[in-house]
Amino acid sequence: MSETLRWLITGGCGFIGINLINLIGKDTRNRIRIVDNLSVGSKNDLATVCQFDHIQADSEALKRGDWSNPPQLIVGDILDDQLADFVTKGADVIIHLAANTGVAPSVENPRQDCFYNVIGTLNYLEAARTNGIKRFVFASSGAPVGETIPPIHEELPAHPVSPYGASKLAGEGYCSAYFRTFGIETVALRFGNVYGPRSGHKSSLVAKFIRQVLNGETLEIYGNGKQTRDFIYIGDLVQAIILGATKDKVGGEIFQIATNAETTVNELSEKLFEVLKASGIKEIKVKNASARLGDVMRNFSDTSKAKNILGWESKTELEEGLQKTVDWFLDKK
């Protein structure tokens, strides 16, 4: 990455955020500012990848427009529109990762899912418009498309199954509108099922399975385990985010960011068991639970648009990524 920027990252203490900061922070010319309400990630998580200054929202440093090194953490909520306007001043790019994530929480509380994923996104798009920030990268998902015959690609009509899919679709819609009406170069990245090191708090499949096994719990597979997903390693995904922030002439675009490989939950669990057993974890208990409301049965992506326009493709094979992830969890334990 040759270009140095002032990065405003919402949700920067989360799994994806700290992996992104770990990479872009290697160039000390970059300036990084993080907004996070610490509902999932923590200051301790952020501290594993960088030293940082905890800056108050009303601090003199922010009022002066001081984008200093080391990274700045502002504890705050994306529903605070005044905070959004304040912290984004002087940014070159907004990376909007903060969200209500996952199907299950959206089914339990659709209203909260809407507030965070729609109003929270709107607040930072408005801040970009008000403060003249040209690039806005939005963390989306394959969920807006809903139940369809995969592979998922960017031209498929959207029919979301879950409230989560609906709220992410609304975010994509606002990104499109702010590009076409206000000229903000929005880039929506539809992430596959992300896994990898530093996912200790993540509730998605790989991290949850590893935690359950290491805690001696029974690993729980929803339904018959034949549902398919596209599992992408975090190291590959953060490269896509950087390209989304820096690549020319990609404003208004949506990209599938995944591996173009369809893997059943049963296949994933078998590969994971092999890695765990080779690492000395011999006893693994499994049970099947009821299928979850809002889950789609088949999901994997056609990533050719990302390859052709962004110049990006995944490089990490599933077995290699699982080994790195298990190693991280074992080292942490």
Characterization of this structure:
An eight-stranded parallel β-sheet has the order 3-4-2-1-5-6-7-12, with helices on both faces. Strands 8-11 form a two-stranded parallel ribbon. A two-stranded parallel ribbon has the order 9-14. Helix 7 (163-182) links the parallel strand 6 and strand 7. Helix content is 40%, strand content 17%. The protein has one domain: NAD(P)-binding Rossmann-like Domain (Rossmann fold, 3-Layer(aba) Sandwich). The chain has twelve helices and 14 strands.
Q: How is the secondary structure organized here?
A:
Layout: E1 6-10, H1 15-24, E2 31-36, H2 43-47, E3 53-54, H3 60-63, E4 72-75, H4 81-87, E5 93-96, H5 103-108, H6 110-131, E6 135-141, H7 163-182, E7 185-191, E8 193-195, H8 205-214, E9 219-222, E10 228-229, E11 231-233, H9 234-246, E12 253-257, E13 263-264, H10 265-278, E14 286-289, H11 304-310, H12 318-332
Parallel strand pairs: 1-2, 1-5, 2-4, 3-4, 5-6, 6-7, 7-12, 8-11, 9-14
Antiparallel strand pairs: 10-13
Helix pairs in contact: 1-9, 4-6, 6-7, 8-10, 8-12, 10-12
